[in-house]
């Protein structure tokens, strides 16, 4: 159940953008492009690693001559190209944002991804005009284990936490917002939160898609 909402703060990856798959497929995409054959379970092996760890693993497993720094730069370039050119909006994202706009409910984005990546992807998918502001954890200088990014966005939107809905696909971020007094919506993404049962339990509302969340406003 949601109480009257005066503003919405959206996570981007896995909520507005269907972008989480790149983080699981990144290593395989990279080595396939170079002509190597993927090894079994490499997506699962690489997924929890940092970029530095992943570059070191790829260099070792595939006996690559390139330095770890060169590999890491190539991976980062691949991510940038994905956001700039490939990533699509989540189903019903534009419809939901348009409905909020028609209702006079302002929206902002709060993301852990680089600003230019998400800005370009949101713009290409026609979502950017509906968002009054984009906040990034690097610019706030605090991860989503801290509620600072949500407080900053709510202050800009001129709403109190209890009147503001935070939409997240990850359990830790949703818990941060909820513990800070925000209303919360948990969104399912097949590449996102592994503990969907806990996400469903902790969220004020749990939705399998943005279309389902749209029903709360439409």
From TrEMBL:
It comes from the Bacteria. InterPro entries: HAD-like_sf, HAD-SF_hydro_IA, HAD_2, HAD_sf, PGP-like_dom2. CDD domains: HAD_BPGM-like. Pfam families: HAD_2 (PF13419). PANTHER family: 2-DEOXYGLUCOSE-6-PHOSPHATE PHOSPHATASE 2, PSEUDOURIDINE-5'-PHOSPHATASE. This is HAD family phosphatase.
């Amino acid at each position: 159940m949601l109480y009257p909402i005066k503003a919405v703060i959206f996570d981007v990856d896995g909520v507005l953008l269907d972008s989480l798959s790149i983080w699981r497929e990144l290593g395989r995409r990279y080595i396939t492009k170079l002509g190597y054959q993927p090894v079994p379970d490499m997506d699962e092996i690489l997924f929890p690693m940092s970029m530095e760890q992943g570059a070191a693993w790829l260099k070792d497993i595939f006996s690559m001559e390139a330095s770890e720094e060169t590999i890491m730069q190539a991976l980062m370039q691949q991510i940038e190209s994905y956001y700039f050119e490939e990533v699509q909006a989540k189903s019903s994202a534009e419809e939901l944002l348009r409905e909020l706009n028609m209702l006079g409910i302002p929206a902002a984005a709060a993301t852990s991804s680089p600003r230019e990546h998400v800005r370009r992807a949101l713009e290409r998918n026609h979502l950017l005009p509906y968002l009054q502001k984009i906040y990034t954890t690097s610019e706030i200088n605090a991860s989503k284990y801290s509620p600072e990014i949500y407080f900053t966005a709510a202050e800009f939107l001129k709403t109190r936490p209890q009147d503001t809905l935070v939409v997240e696909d990850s359990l830790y971020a949703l818990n941060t917002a909820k513990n800070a007094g925000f209303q919360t919506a948990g969104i399912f993404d097949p590449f996102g939160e592994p503990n969907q049962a806990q996400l469903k339990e902790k969220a004020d509302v749990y939705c399998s898609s943005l279309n389902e969340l749209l029903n709360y406003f439409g």
